[in-house]
Amino acid sequence: MFESYKFELKRTLSNIEIKSFSYLLMQQTSVHKVYVDEVNSKNVTVYYLQNKDIDEIKKEIDDFLEQYFISNKEVAIALEGNIITNDYLDYCSTCKPKNNTNISIELLKRGWIKLLRGHDMQFSGELIRLLEYFDRSYVKYMMKHYDNVKEVKYSTLIPKYYMEKLNYFQSAPKHLFYPMTLNNDTTKDFANSIQKNKGKLPNEFNNYLGTPKYVLQSAPCFKIYFSLQDQEIEDNLIYTVKGECYRNEGKKTYLLERLLNFSMREFVFLGEPNFVVENRENILKWTFEWMQELGIKGNCALANDPFFICDDARKNFEIPKNVKYEVKADIPYKNDSLSIASFDTHGNYFSKTFNFNINKSNKTWSGCMGLGIERCTWSFLQQYGLDNKQWPEIIRRELNEGY
Ligand SMILES: [Zn+2]
């Protein structure tokens, strides 16, 4: 039921690159299996379903290869660095979680989480301390490695101008939250209709609304790129920012695992491609070290939801292939894992869109990593339970010291 098709690449693939190349080829085309010749890695054989049109498959492969091998030398060097990250794909920490049961009921029983109406929640007790602890501990660990990080803080509102420039309303509209305001000249009618409706919002609510001027941010790093619009940067930059994120997950929320509103700690790297790629590699490595130190068990995976840029727009930018990696933490009771951090390289997507550059170079890249604070706390509690006597010594000690 499978047919095969052979083709030759324009350069050989390194051993660690073969895995990501095959993975991406299967993801982005209709082929089912990829075989890269071990002796000459330029030779590739793919297998596809018999009922597929070979010409279509060929076209998909050609498009894929065109994107994969970006001819620019500088980008190619940075990409090589990027590929080193594949060493981490098999990473799995040696930590030994002590809890095997779902903590959800206990969490509610103890009142650390109280469910409120409309998928909302109240956090209290030890949970608040843990949420603060994981953020501070992470920042402290990373800061050991840097001496030039700029810390910034923003509101959660993004003026629509920026999202229009990013074409975000077309590429990823459904996860956005839009804070609405009334049209000024409808305020009186609106109040009247509310009165008639006994305090409830009227069904024809839309009639009173203006076009939103803002959206709620889906990641805190955006504003760093906005803040650099039309500027020249003298040196490579590292930022850190913590912020609230809003994602419309519909009804798919589940305690700390999936929230409409959560907090994220980010580190952002801007400048020469190699600087961005290298730092993304390093912080991924240090994140594992940090997890190991705290006892959180996890692994690394290549993510399949890279970036919100649509395929049409992609060709206008230099965007490296392995855009996104995720660090996942084990959720022992269901023998599964949950993404707690992601590591992205955006190429020149933000610098070109917002016209900033390092020393007038059009090779100005950006990359960021984000740690989901609630998910990190959630997976820790799933791995060790709610009884703090069972928690790793380092966490008990640092919490006691009022970390
Ligand atoms: Zn980010």
Q: How is the topology of this model organized?
A:
Layout: E1 2-8, H1 15-28, E2 33-36, E3 43-49, H2 54-68, H3 73-84, H4 104-109, E4 113-116, E5 120-123, H5 126-143, E6 149-152, E7 157-159, H6 160-165, H7 168-171, H8 187-196, E8 214-216, H9 222-227, E9 232-233, E10 237-246, E11 261-271, H10 273-294, E12 298-302, H11 311-314, E13 324-331, E14 336-347, H12 349-353, E15 357-358, E16 365-372, H13 373-384, H14 393-400
Parallel strand pairs: 6-10, 9-15
Antiparallel strand pairs: 1-3, 2-3, 4-5, 7-8, 10-11, 11-16, 12-13, 13-14, 14-16
Please give a structural write-up.
- This is Aminoacyl-transfer RNA synthetases class-II family profile domain-containing protein.
- InterPro entries: aa-tRNA-synth_II/BPL/LPL.
- Helix 5 packs across helix 13.
- The strands form five sheets. The protein has a seven-stranded mixed β-sheet with strand order 6-10-11-16-14-13-12.
- It is about 35% helix and about 25% strand.
- Strand 13 (about 325-330) and strand 14 (about 335-345) form a beta hairpin.
- The protein has two domains: about 1-70, 2-Layer Sandwich (Alpha-Beta Plaits); about 85-175 and about 220-400, Bira Bifunctional Protein, Domain 2 (BirA Bifunctional Protein, domain 2).
- It has helices at about 15-30, 55-70, 75-85, 105-110, 125-145, 160-165, 170, 185-195, 220-225, 275-295, 310-315, 350-355, 375-385, 395-400, and strands at about 1-10, 35, 45-50, 115, 120-125, 150, 155-160, 215, 230-235, 235-245, 260-270, 300, 325-330, 335-345, 355-360, 365-370.
- It is globular.
- With about 400 residues, the protein is of the alpha+beta class.
- The model is unreliable at about 70-85 (pLDDT under 50).
- The chain is built from 14 helices and 16 strands.
- Zinc ion binds near residues 266 and 370.
